[in-house]
């Protein structure tokens, strides 16, 4: 396959970026999108140019590192997968592909297609946990959890923290990410003691990071590689309202 | 109280207030449409004019109308404020976006649709609401049979020194009631003879349809009411009733008066 | 130098209890002044860091990824073992211990493995308390499955994403401490050297991967939780960033490297599709429960799989191992596939793959389902359709994954699979305390060599990582730190820090200044080809000797001709990769040396010269029942130290799956 790539290049956080166009030939439909970038980078290195920096690690769709905005969609045109799981057979010979980094105020570009997603870490640090020190735990089977609740918790916990929800949202809102963690813990008995505190703290941190507000376009759900449901956002709204009304803070 | 100020300044708190006022406005629309359908009575505006007096004088309705004014203002300006804030959350825009792949058009353009509706509201309120309260309106006298409720006769009584919104005299002797009203009906009739106004109304009703098609179910989501069992019903009501029927209902009025009504 | 494993006295089952009751403790007031550096944020690193911070130590955590949550533990699919005996099927600490030792082909340390089995139950308790959503039964209790050919159901799981859920649990505990200000988190930082002062590990040199600046960090102790070295083969199921650098730098600073030739090959991976391939994807071993593995009976048969009639198919695992059939352990299944492909019976475009066929499973499940639905005399198509529905329910996500990667529909044609490097049992040598041969320097999780011997059982990697981090190191580190309470934090302008930074800087400069003509990946692929061909699933003396020569030559060429674009003071992935490859190029040689010296076949190490008449691994317990711990001697090479293994509680036997 022969392709034209328009890729965002940006030296560093402060620099002004611009698109750079590359022609690339000899692409196999069996390659993953990132392998296509490997080929391009190899070519750039051989030509004495600087390769394109992009984030990637596990290349099997679970670590959440890869993050390309491809032809106007996070992780490209297919549903329920990450960029590393996207294969070139999803494109046509001769296509022009535009690749941009995730764009959001709280996700500043570090270089080229690499962005800083540490805002997500800070949100988790604000309350996305159960406060249980090692050794505190009772026997694992001492608290039964309804299978339905465990399944719901799991579905929410499947979030890989890639940030596609923020990237897809026209408001750069992080509510799908935040609500997924809140929902996981709200569905489990272990998460109950800190439920209100968690809701208040995580929302406060999310707002502080400067993410936009949710306007329920549901683009996040449509683009989430793990198909996390927006019903989690509704749950978060409930949690937050409940916490505001009931909490002593 | 500080905890509530935190709520109202939080992202979720803000969107809940927009959702709540939006839902209230939805209820208002139903009532408003119901009331205005009285335009279609072939009674030379008797029912509508009577209703208008009731709606502008009943203390409970008056109270609700203040809530309504507040809701409109809050919903519009908080909504716009949020839209502005949300834009700022992405200081560098994408060169290419493909929104239609992941969301419906209405959901991405609520600010635009809302702005159209806001402009419409300004015109609408100037034409009718302000006109009714402060304008020089025609007056009409209706003579109604006390027994049957049948309208026996009407008479234009404009310029005869009336200043009330309306009043009723009972003529026991003749078993008749004499109603004198500010004639809102005539104002509507006249207003909808202007093509530009009719056009504005039609465009705005389309905008309203799209706004509600997303907005109605979105309010439930924002309020945290999302359940697979009820989502379908909520979406259906949002799309069919609020997205289609209600805007069509309103649109029939200018269409009727412009194309089919003869005075 | 003599290797002291520091195994406590007493009967096996009481060693750990006695140890815990007698190990010196550190007063809470002193803990506040003791600083611990944790490198790596996977299961071992995150669990160790959070637990140590909870205990009151000052902790710094480093990871090269953009977030601690991305560590490669996240990719583990299958599950985590624990001797809970919730299923009442006769499991016990001893059985888990026994299975692990046997599975490891009798090349691991009894005391360590027993401790692992003892704490396994606590891990599940801890994870559940953190909100890890393990699979449950309708009664609300935890569900278990059997895994990796053991006879009890002791594997806890969260769909096919157990590693992810456990890691996110550990990550949340870590981030909680970060939020409380008790852990300083350094993501996008790569450790490039250990600083040793007066024989003790006292800190690290790390490169900030965004600014490129070298940083010095002091710690009273340093914990390496940096995973395995599977990427020495270039293609593996490891993440692209997984590397040996931290462990290797520690090795060069005096930590012995143990059993590097013990590498594990996983039999059910999606085959290589071309030269562009950057990594291999594992498909859960559970697929072997219902699928049948075969190749054509005719050499070089190029017909599509569905056109090959039943009697022309060779179900070679069922033929060779009638008792276990398609469920033989990983190493056996992997070697059998290689044997067939090498003999010319491989399938697919590369001829380096075998079929994993679900046709008979469709039929079997279809018939059961038809009976359940009360269908009388259903036709073949109906049975097949019903069967596919059942399979979809059980393995749907794996089938989807296969289709996504290969573009073939596995419901219609058999899947093609081939073994791939998956895990490395070898690693830094550690004693019972998990301390390497450098005092104050610890290795946890896959980074150390300790618990899996020559072969790891399924669902045991997660168990070991978390055991080390949550329940072992918090106790054993006290034994060292209790003697360090009067050591004041050493300022990082100490000459040892300066020297370490100078050396690190020198290597970076050297890499940037080669300015050759070939990319880092070019050399990595070449290295991978050598190691995979000659030190992969099967090894022999001649091949290993050749490999050692080729690796040396490749290393030389690398340092002459590699091209690393860009400069140090920016985000420079090529520079990162180059540094990691430089270390792989050294480790690869040691790995081949270790494989060459071990004149026996055991676990993941199969030497063609040492096999039984019917091609099974032949162990030599007389001469090789030891841990090979290699000491780095600079230019002079490596010196072998042996830690002899004694088995007092278990009877050594030949593994047989016939």
How are the elements arranged and paired?
The complex is a heterotrimer of chains A (249), B (263) and C (658).
Chain A: E1 3-9, E2 18-24, H1 33-46, E3 69-70, E4 73-74, E5 96-100, E6 109-111, E7 114-115, H2 118-127, H3 147-157, H4 164-168, H5 175-186, H6 195-209, H7 219-223, H8 231-246
Parallel strand pairs in A: 1-5
Antiparallel strand pairs in A: 1-2, 3-4, 3-5, 6-7
Chain B: H1 2-9, H2 11-36, H3 46-57, H4 59-88, H5 105-108, H6 110-134, E1 139-145, E2 151-156, E3 166-171, E4 176-182, H7 184-191, H8 195-222, H9 228-260
Antiparallel strand pairs in B: 1-2, 1-4, 3-4
Chain C: H1 12-22, H2 28-31, E1 35-39, H3 43-55, E2 58-62, E3 80-81, H4 93-103, H5 110-130, E4 144-145, E5 155-156, H6 162-179, E6 183-186, E7 189-197, E8 200-208, E9 214-218, E10 221-224, H7 245-252, E11 257-258, E12 263-269, H8 287-290, E13 292-296, E14 313-314, H9 316-320, H10 330-342, E15 354-357, H11 359-372, H12 380-406, E16 415-424, E17 427-428, E18 441-443, H13 461-481, H14 495-514, H15 520-535, H16 541-561, H17 573-597, H18 621-624, E19 626-632, E20 638-644
Parallel strand pairs in C: 1-2, 1-10, 2-6, 10-18
Antiparallel strand pairs in C: 3-5, 4-5, 7-8, 8-9, 11-17, 11-19, 12-16, 13-14, 13-15, 15-16, 19-20
Give a description of the structure.
The complex is a heterotrimer of chains A (249), B (263) and C (658). Chain A is α+β, with helices and mostly antiparallel strands and 249 residues long. Helix content of chain A is 35%, strand content 11%. Chain A contains eight helices and seven strands. In chain A, the strands form two sheets. A five-stranded mixed sheet of chain A has the order 2-1-5-3-4. In chain A, a hairpin with an 8-residue loop joins strand 1 and strand 2 (18-24). Chain A is elongated, with a radius of gyration of 20 Å. Chain B is α+β, with helices and mostly antiparallel strands and 263 residues long. Chain B contains nine helices and four strands; from the N terminus they run ααααααββββααα. In chain B, strand 1 and strand 2 form a beta hairpin. Chain C has three domains: 28-262 and 425-481, FAD/NAD(P)-binding domain; 266-420, Succinate dehydrogenase/fumarate reductase flavoprotein, catalytic domain (Flavocytochrome C3, Chain A, domain 1, Alpha-Beta Complex); 495-619, Fumarate reductase/succinate dehydrogenase flavoprotein-like, C-terminal domain (Methane Monooxygenase Hydroxylase, Chain G, domain 1). Chain C has 18 helices and 20 strands. Chain C has helices at residues 12-22, 28-31, 43-55, 93-103, 110-130, 162-179, 245-252, 287-290, 316-320, 330-342, 359-372, 380-406, 461-481, 495-514, 520-535, 541-561, 573-597, 621-624; strands spanning 35-39, 58-62, 80-81, 144-145, 155-156, 183-186, 189-197, 200-208, 214-218, 221-224, 257-258, 263-269, 292-296, 313-314, 354-357, 415-424, 427-428, 441-443, 626-632, 638-644. Chain C has a five-stranded parallel sheet, with helices on both faces. In chain C, strands 12-16-15-13-14 form a five-stranded antiparallel sheet. A four-stranded antiparallel sheet of chain C has the order 17-11-19-20. In chain C, a hairpin with a 5-residue loop joins strand 19 (626-632) and strand 20. The longest helix of chain C is centred in the middle third of the chain and has 27 residues, at 380-406. The mean pLDDT of chain C is 95. Chains in contact: A-B, A-C. At the A-B interface, helix 6, helix 7 and helix 8 of A face helix 1, helix 2, helix 4 and helix 8 of B.
């Amino acid at each position: 396959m022969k392709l034209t790539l328009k890729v965002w290049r940006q030296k560093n956080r402060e620099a002004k970026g611009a698109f750079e166009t590359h022609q690339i030939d000899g692409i196999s439909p069996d390659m993953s999108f990132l392998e296509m970038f490997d080929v391009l980078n190899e070519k750039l290195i051989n030509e004495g140019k600087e390769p394109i920096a992009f984030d990637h690690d596990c290349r099997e769709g679970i670590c959440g590192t890869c993050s390309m905005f491809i032809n106007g969609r996070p992780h490209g045109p297919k549903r329920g997968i990450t960029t590393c799981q996207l294969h070139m057979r999803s494109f046509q010979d001769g296509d022009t592909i535009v690749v941009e980094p995730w764009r959001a105020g709280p996700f500043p570009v570090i270089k080229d297609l690499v962005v800083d997603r540490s805002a997500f870490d800070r949100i988790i640090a604000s309350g996305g946990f159960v406060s249980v020190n090692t050794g505190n735990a009772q026997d694992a089977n001492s608290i039964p959890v309804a299978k339905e609740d465990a399944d719901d918790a799991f579905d929410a916990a499947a979030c890989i923290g890639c940030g596609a929800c923020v990237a897809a949202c026209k408001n750069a809102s992080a509510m799908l990410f935040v609500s997924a963690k809140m929902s996981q813990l709200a569905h489990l008995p272990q998460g109950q003691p800190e439920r209100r505190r968690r809701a208040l703290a995580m929302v406060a941190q999310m707002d502080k990071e400067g993410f936009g507000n949710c306007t329920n376009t549901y683009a996040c759900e449509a683009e989430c590689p793990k198909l996390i449901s927006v019903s989690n956002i509704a749950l978060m709204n409930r949690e937050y309202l409940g916490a505001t009304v009931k909490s002593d803070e | 109280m500080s905890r509530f100020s935190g709520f109202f300044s939080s992202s979720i708190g803000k969107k809940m207030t927009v959702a709540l006022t939006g839902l209230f406005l939805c209820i208002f629309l139903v009532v408003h449409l119901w009331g205005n359908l009285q335009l279609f009575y072939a009674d030379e505006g008797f029912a509508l004019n009577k209703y208008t007096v009731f709606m502008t004088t009943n203390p409970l309705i008056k109270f609700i109308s203040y809530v309504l004014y507040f809701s409109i203002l809050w919903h519009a300006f908080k909504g716009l404020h949020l839209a502005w804030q949300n834009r700022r959350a992405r200081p560098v825009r994408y060169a290419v976006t493909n929104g239609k792949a992941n969301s419906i058009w209405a959901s991405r353009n609520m600010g635009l649709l809302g702005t159209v509706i806001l402009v419409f509201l300004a015109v609408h309120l100037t034409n009718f609401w302000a006109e009714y309260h402060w304008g020089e309106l025609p007056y009409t006298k209706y003579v109604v049979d006390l027994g049957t409720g049948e309208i026996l006769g009407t008479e234009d009584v404009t310029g005869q020194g009336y200043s009330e919104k309306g009043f009723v005299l009972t003529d026991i002797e003749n078993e008749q009631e004499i109603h004198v009203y500010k004639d809102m009906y005539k104002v509507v009739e006249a207003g909808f003879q202007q093509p530009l106004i009719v056009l504005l109304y039609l465009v705005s009703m389309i905008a309203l349809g799209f706004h509600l098609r997303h907005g109605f179910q979105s309010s439930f989501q924002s309020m945290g009411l999302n359940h697979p069992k009820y989502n379908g019903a909520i979406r259906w009501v949002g799309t069919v009733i609020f997205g289609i029927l209600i805007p069509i209902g309103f649109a029939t009025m200018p269409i009727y008066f412009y194309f089919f009504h003869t005075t | 130098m003599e290797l002291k494993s520091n195994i406590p006295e007493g009967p096996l089952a009481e060693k750990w209890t006695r140890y815990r009751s007698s190990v010196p403790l550190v007063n809470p007031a002193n803990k506040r002044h003791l600083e611990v550096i944790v490198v790596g944020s996977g299961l071992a690193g995150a669990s160790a860091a959070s637990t140590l911070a909870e205990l009151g130590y000052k902790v710094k955590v480093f990871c090269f990824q953009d977030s601690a949550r991305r560590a490669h533990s996240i990719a583990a699919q299958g599950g985590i073992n624990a001797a809970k005996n919730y299923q009442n099927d006769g499991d016990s600490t001893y059985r888990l211990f026994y299975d692990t030792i046997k599975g490891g082909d009798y090349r691991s340390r009894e005391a360590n493995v027993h401790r692992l089995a003892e704490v396994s139950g606590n891990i599940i308790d801890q994870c559940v308390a953190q909100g890890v959503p393990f699979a449950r039964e309708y009664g609300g209790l935890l569900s278990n499955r059997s895994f990796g050919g053991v006879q009890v159901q002791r594997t806890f799981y969260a769909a096919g994403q157990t590693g992810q859920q456990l890691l996110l649990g550990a990550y949340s505990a870590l981030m909680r401490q970060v939020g409380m200000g008790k852990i300083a988190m350094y993501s996008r930082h790569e450790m490039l050297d250990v600083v040793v002062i007066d024989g003790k590990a006292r800190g690290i040199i790390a490169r900030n991967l965004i600014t490129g600046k070298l940083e010095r960090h002091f710690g009273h102790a340093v914990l390496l939780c940096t995973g395995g070295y599977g990427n020495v083969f270039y293609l593996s199921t490891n993440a692209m960033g997984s590397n040996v650098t931290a462990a290797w730098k520690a090795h060069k600073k005096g930590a012995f490297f143990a059993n590097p030739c013990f590498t594990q090959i996983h039999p059910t991976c999606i085959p290589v599709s071309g030269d562009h391939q950057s990594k291999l994807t594992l498909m859960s071993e559970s697929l072997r429960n219902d699928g049948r593995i075969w190749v054509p009976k005719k050499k070089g048969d190029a017909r599509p799989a569905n056109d090959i009639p039943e009697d022309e198919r060779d179900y070679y695992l069922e033929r060779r191992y009638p008792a276990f059939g398609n469920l033989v352990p990983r190493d056996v299944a992997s070697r059998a596939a290689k044997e067939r492909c090498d003999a010319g019976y491989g399938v697919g475009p590369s001829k380096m793959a075998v079929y994993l066929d679900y046709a008979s499973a469709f039929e079997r499940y279809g018939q059961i389902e038809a009976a359940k639905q009360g269908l009388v005399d259903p036709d073949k198509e109906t049975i097949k359709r019903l069967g596919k529905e059942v399979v979809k329910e059980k393995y749907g996500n794996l089938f989807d994954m296969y289709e996504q990667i290969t573009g073939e529909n596995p419901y219609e044609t058999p899947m093609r699979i081939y073994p791939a490097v998956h895990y490395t049992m070898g690693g830094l040598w550690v004693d019972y305390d998990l301390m390497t041969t450098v005092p104050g320097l610890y290795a946890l999780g896959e980074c150390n060599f300790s618990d899996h011997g020559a072969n790891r059982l399924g669902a045991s990697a997660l168990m070991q990582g978390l055991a080390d981090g949550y329940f072992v190191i918090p106790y054993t580190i006290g034994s060292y730190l209790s003697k360090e309470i009067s050591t004041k934090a050493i300022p990082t302008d100490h000459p040892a820090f300066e020297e370490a930074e100078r050396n690190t800087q020198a290597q970076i400069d050297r890499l940037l200044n080669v300015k050759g003509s070939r990319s880092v990946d070019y050399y990595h692929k070449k290295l991978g080809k050598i190691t995979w061909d000659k030190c992969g699933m099967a090894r022999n003396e001649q091949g290993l000797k050749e490999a050692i020569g080729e690796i040396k030559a490749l290393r030389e060429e690398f340092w002459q001709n590699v091209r690393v674009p860009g400069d140090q003071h920016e985000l420079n992935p090529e520079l990162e990769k180059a540094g990691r490859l430089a270390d792989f190029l050294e480790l690869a040689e040691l790995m081949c040396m270790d494989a060459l010296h071990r004149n026996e076949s055991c676990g993941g190490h199969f030497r063609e010269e040492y096999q039984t008449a019917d091609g099974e691994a032949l162990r030599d317990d007389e001469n090789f029942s030891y841990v090979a711990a290699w000491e780095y001697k600079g230019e002079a090479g490596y010196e072998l130290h042996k830690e002899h293994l004694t088995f007092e509680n278990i009877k050594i036997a030949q593994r047989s799956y016939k």
